[in-house]
Design a protein that fits this description.
Elements lengths: L1 H12 L9 E4 L1 E3 L2 E3 L21 E5 L6 E5 L5 E4 L5 E3 L5 E12 L3 E11 L2 E2 L4 H6 L5 E5 L9 E2 L3 E8 L2 E2 L4 E5 L6 E4 L5 E5 L17 E11 L2 E12 L9 H28 L1
Parallel strand pairs: 8-10, 9-19, 12-19
Antiparallel strand pairs: 1-4, 2-3, 4-7, 5-6, 5-8, 8-9, 11-13, 13-14, 13-17, 15-16, 15-18, 18-19
């Protein structure tokens, strides 16, 4: 029995997060040191990467060789950026809203891309984020559908919808892998419109009461496709936050409190109205 259980345990617990793909990871500082682990926690602070201020440092993980990096701004203008080794310092932002950060890396047999969306505070843009997500960014692309509202966040135990496009068209019946650092990979399949939905796992550890007391984690979506003797790989990384309803808040209790409050108010109103008539 032990001979059977040991390989199973190793399979479940020793997967490699992000192995074999290029992806964006936020810079983490612990006592001035650079790190890429610990839940993928972000230097973006307490808001899970939303409203991050004027500058952010990111790392292009598993990158070898030359690549191109493009930043698409909320007004859909583009800026080419330079990596220092595999590290990127975002320039000062003058426009508030969603930005798309795209890395493209080509070899003779493979085309890789890594995409990340960033929400930055500043003067708001009049362009809808839906136009940013609809703009083609790579041959193979995972597209949020929709991108959640600014000042919101991806949250554990909730489901979210995405699209998979290849050269601007939906890619149907294609596998997508969802990875986090503390949950084994999960595979999804796109439908006949290229759409798929994921449910983010509740895999936070050492949870403290209060959203701001818990660092966000990271999720990684991976897609792969072959065409004309070329392999395409694309990733999308985003932070996600703990769901208070899994711990110190309860939707059922909240709904019960609202119902009790409503009934109490209704009874008070009827008594007041009855007393007025008797008076």
């Amino acid at each position: 029995m032990k001979k059977i259980l040991l390989p199973l345990l190793l399979t479940v617990t020793l997967w490699g997060y992000g192995d074999g793909v290029i992806y964006w990871a936020p810079h983490i500082s612990h006592g001035g040191e650079h790190s890429h682990g610990d839940h993928g926690g972000s230097s973006h602070g307490k808001h899970g990467g939303h409203g991050i201020g004027e500058a952010t440092m990111l790392h292009a993980m598993n990158l070898e060789g030359n690549s191109s990096v493009t930043l698409i701004k909320p007004d859909l203008s583009k800026e080419d950026l330079n990596l220092s080794d595999t590290t990127l310092n975002l320039p000062k932002a003058s426009i508030g809203g969603y930005y798309a950060l795209i890395l493209n890396h080509h070899t003779d047999t493979q085309i890789d891309s890594a995409i990340r969306y960033l929400s930055i505070q500043g003067r708001p843009s009049k362009v809808s984020p839906s136009k940013l997500t609809a703009l083609p960014k790579s041959d193979l692309e995972i597209v949020p559908n929709p991108l959640h509202r600014e000042h919101d966040r991806y949250t554990a135990s909730k489901s979210y919808r995405f699209l998979l496009h290849f050269q601007g068209k939906p890619l149907t019946n294609a596998p997508i892998t969802l990875e986090t650092r503390d949950t084994p990979p999960q595979t999804y399949t796109t439908d006949n419109t290229g759409a798929f939905s994921i449910t983010l796992p509740n895999d936070f550890k050492n949870v403290q009461v209060g959203k701001s007391e818990n660092k966000p984690s990271e999720f990684l979506l991976v897609a792969q496709h072959s065409d004309n003797n070329l392999t395409y790989k694309s990733t999308l990384t985003m932070p996600y936050s703990l769901n208070p309803n899994d711990y110190w808040q309860s939707q059922s209790y909240g709904a019960g409190a609202i119902t009790i409050g409503f009934l109490g108010g209704l009874m008070f109103y009827r008594r007041t109205k009855k007393g007025a008539k008797n008076g």
